[in-house]
């Protein structure tokens, strides 16, 4: 009986761990966008590989952003 109780507790802790993982570590679109905004002073500072086509990287208000062509 004790063994079943221990196994149930392990399973419960595993489920709690998964829930915590999803709540705190799953990125949203806003966090992905924030990570892409690199600081810049001129357009040359922005990486060309940062954006997917047909968008290009552009220095806007001191940060690189992807802009539609």
TrEMBL record:
Domain Late nodulin: 7-65
UniProt keyword terms in alphabetical order: Membrane, Transmembrane, Transmembrane helix
GO molecular function, one term: metal ion binding
Residue stretches spanning the membrane: 12-28
Pfam families named in the record: Nodulin_late
Protein's UniProt keywords contain Transmembrane: yes
Protein name stated in the entry: Putative Late nodulin
Organism: Medicago truncatula
Phylogenetic lineage: Eukaryota, Viridiplantae, Streptophyta, Embryophyta, Tracheophyta
